[in-house]
Structures are given as C-alpha cells and as structure tokens.
Amino acid sequence: MKTLRIPFFKNQKTNLLLLTGVCLVLILMVLIIQFFLIGGQNKTLRKIRIAQHIALDNYVQTLPVDDKISQIFLVNIDGKHKYIPVEKTGALIGNPRVGEPLVPGGVLLFSFNIGSSKEEVIEYIQSIKEYYYIHNKVPPYISIDQEGGYVNRLRGITDMLPSAKTVASEYSLEEASTLYAIQAKQMAELGFSLNLAPVAEIETKFNKDFLDTRSFGSLEQVASYGTVQIQQFKAQKIGSAIKHFPGNTNLDPHTGLPEISVNANELNSTYIEPFKRLMPYADAVLMSHARINVTDNPAADSQTPACLSEYWVKRVIRGELGFDGLVISDDIFMNALVKNGYDTEKAAVSAVNAGVDVIMISEKRFGDVAKILLEHCENDPNFATKLDRACRHVIEYKIKNGLFRYQLIGRNKLGPMYELVPCRPEEK
Questions:
Q1: Contacts of 220-223 spanning 24+ positions with Cβ under 8 A
Q2: Neighbours of 422 (CB within 10 A)
Q3: What is the 3-class SS of 190-254, one letter each residue?
Q4: Residues 368-413: pLDDT tens digits?
Q5: Distance CA 291, CA 242 (A)
Q6: Which stretches in the chain have pLDDT values below 70?
Q7: CA 173 to CA 24: how far, in whole Å?
C-alpha cells in the first residue's frame, strides 16, 4: 500500500505556506459541513415551531366562548378543603342557575384558602386541578401573593420567608438565592404555578409608607435580588409577576386612587427602570391603579388609571419596553377604581381595550362581568379580537409553565402536525 505523502520543499517558507493552505482547506470543509448540519437543524426547528403555532391557534379558535372569556379572569375562590365552583355558564346569558360550571382561567388563593398543614393545601389545590380536568375545562394556573414578611399567605406551611427589605439588607445574593430556591421548591410541591411577586418598585419617600418592607430598596437591590428570586421560581416552573407597574404612592389603592406626578427623566429612572431590569426574567407584569402625570410629556395618559390605559399597556409595556409576557390588572374591586368612576364592568371592558391579558377579581363571582365582555364581543369585532389575543397570551403562559403539552398527531409534506392537549393534574 502506498502512503500519501505531502511534498516538502527545501524552502522553509514554501513548506509553511503549503501547510497553512492545507489547514485552511480543512477548516473551510468543517465550516461547510457545520453550515449544512446547522441549517438542517434550524429548518427542522422552524417547521416544529410553525406546527406548534398552528396547534395553538386551532386550540384558541375552537374554545367554547365561555371558556375563552373565562381565561382572562384571575379570581379568588371559596374553601380550603375541596373545590366547588359557585357559578354556571348560564350567568353569561342572564340565567345563572343553568349550564356548565363557570370557572376562571386562573385561581387566586388568600390566607383563608390555606389549610393547617402542607397535606391539606396539596389536597385542596389538587381538587381544583382535578375538577377542571374531569369537567374538560382549560387547566388553571394557581396563584398566590407570597412576597415574604407580612405578605405571607403560606405562613406555617412553607419555611419562613423574610420580607424583601430584610432579604436585601441582611442576606447576600447567594444566601437569598438559597432562600428563594427552598421556598420555590416547597410552593411547587404544593401545586402553585404563579407567584404575584416580587414588588419591583424602588423604595422612595413617596411610597415607603404604603410599601413598608415590601420593596427590596434601591434600584440595584431591586434589580439584583428581584432577579435572583424570579430565577429560582422559574427553575421550579413557577412564574413571577413583578408589581405594581409603574408604581404607587403612599395612598393605599384599596382606599383611594394614587396620583403620581413626575417629569419624564424621573419616570424613567425611578419608576420604569427597575421593571425594565426585571422584565427579561419575569413571566408577568401586574399593573398599578395609579394615575401618572408626566409633566413634560403631554402625550402620556394622565387621566386613566395605568391598569386601564392603552398608553401604559400597549405603548409603554409592549412597545417601548418590548415585554411579551402576561399583563395583569390589579384587583378591579379596589376603591381606587370603584370610587372614581370605574365600576367592575366598566373597568373590565377598559382593561381589555387597553391590552390587559388578565383581569384580577378578589370576589368569588365573575359571571356578571364576563357577561358584559361577551356582549361586547358579540357587538364589536375589534373587541372580540382583543379578547382572543388576551386568551392566547394566557394559554401561551400555561404552555410555558407545563399545564399543556404538544402532542404529535402525524406528518404531512410540510412537516410535523401537533395537537395542544392539557396535562393531567398529576403531570404538573
């Protein structure tokens, strides 16, 4: 057998040029092979994404109207032992005693929903999920305000969780990461999928009486400790809703309407910036009821509460900040709205028109509000499109957090075909 020999020349420079040329050819060949391999992989991934996009569209389009409208509600419920719905779909047509169960897309638990042991909480949350599954309802996300400190709905069920202010002042980032990792793991075991935390507002003299110990403190503290908290919860497939965008005052929105007056520079540096830092990691933004007057920007909406304002939702959050997660209103039963010309029905319609995805209601019943939204959908195609978009955002969040899965149902000449199917309660 003859051995392939690379010719060598007496001239050392010629040999070096020859070897360099051979190496360059080999490198080029490797790059070409990688290009075609990666190109093929990317093409396959694109086909999968397109097929999954189609499956999501099909799922949303074929949802019954009551389920579609229900998706945009985050509602508190009764009990702490076994879930029993309190409304029927007949509420949407003015006959609340008939029809299938009317259940919200998201469930919000308060302290009175929490049993005396971990086992009781698990059993209760499991009963919610099983009820939805048995009755062929869109699986719900289970949420709670678990900030730490005095906003602690799971006291005695999970490990101690200090307030944000205490964590930022007494814990290193590494210690905070461990603290939040433990809390997130315990909450995942209980069955939660969304935490309405952390507070992303910087502490100032204008809000510290209301926020108290709920803020991490400075911009850098909010950005660093908030990121650590969100990432540890994300690792357990629990989403985080940063709040309350773009900020609050010392006036409690449960009692009145906060009014913020700032120039554009202060708005961006003090109010917007902490949210901007956390948005790349967060799954949701929870809106404030505050009205914001930007003194040197007449284009900014200063008349409408932020959670009902198209300017603050679409132009600022979606447009300027590029956030594509869930946008959640604060509780529309708060006096900040109710006592200032926004009853619950008007607030809900305004929220959908503004581009809000999820309407929070602290009451147990949402049928009357859902009925108003249904009437608007029937009479206004643009409103119906906005509600469809909100519903789609909610379903996308549920997919991301493991409440749905894409099931391969076949292939055609364009690639794979998928169906979006709810996960069984024990799968999440």
A1: 221/168, 222/198, 222/274, 222/277, 222/278, 223/274, 223/277, 223/278
A2: 19
A3: HCCCEECCCECCCCCCCCHHHHCCCCCCCHHHHHHHHHHHHHHHHCCCCEEEEEEECCCCCCCCC
A4: 999 999 999 999 999 999 999 999 999 999 999 999 999 999 898 7
A5: 18
A6: 1-17, 34-41, 428
A7: 47
How far is C-alpha 108 from the chain's CA centre? 14
Compute the Cα dihedral for 333, 337, 342, 346 and give only its sign.
Answer: negative
Amino acid symbol at 297: N
CB 154 within 8 A of CB 144: yes
The predicted structure's pLDDT at residue 244: 96
C-alpha radius of gyration, the chain, whole number: 26
Q: Is 141:107 a contact under the CB 8 Å cutoff?
A: yes
Length of the chain, please? 428
Let me know how many helices (H) and strands (E) the chain has, helices first. 14, 14
At 40 the pLDDT is: 59
Which CATH class for the 51-427 domain? alpha beta
Torsions phi, psi for 314 (to 5 deg): -80, -50
- What pLDDT score does 412 carry? 87
Long-range contacts of 168-172 (CB under 8 A, 24+ apart): 168/216, 168/217, 168/221, 168/225, 169/217
Of 109, 200, 201, the closest CA to residue 146 belongs to: 109
Q: What is the pTM of this model?
A: 0.88
C-alpha dist (Å) from residue 286 to 24, 206, 315, 317, 373: 55, 20, 16, 11, 21
Q: What is the pLDDT of residue 42?
A: 74
Q: How far apart are CA 289 and CA 270, in angstroms?
A: 18
DSSP string, 53-85: HHHHHHHHHHS-HHHHHHTTEEEE-S-SSS---
The answer for 336, left when phi > 0, alpha when psi is -120 to 50, beta otherwise, is alpha
In the chain, where the domains are located = 51-427
Close Cβ partners of 266 (under 8 Å, ≥ 6 residues apart): none
184-201 pLDDT tens trace:
999 999 999 999 999 999
* Contact of 228 with 183, CB cutoff 8 Å: no
The separation between CA 3 and the C-alpha centre of its own chain, rounded to angstroms, equals: 65
- Neighbour count for residue 299 (Cβ, 10 Å): 8
Helix or strand holding residue 421 (H, E): strand 415-422
* Residue 15 confidence (pLDDT): 65
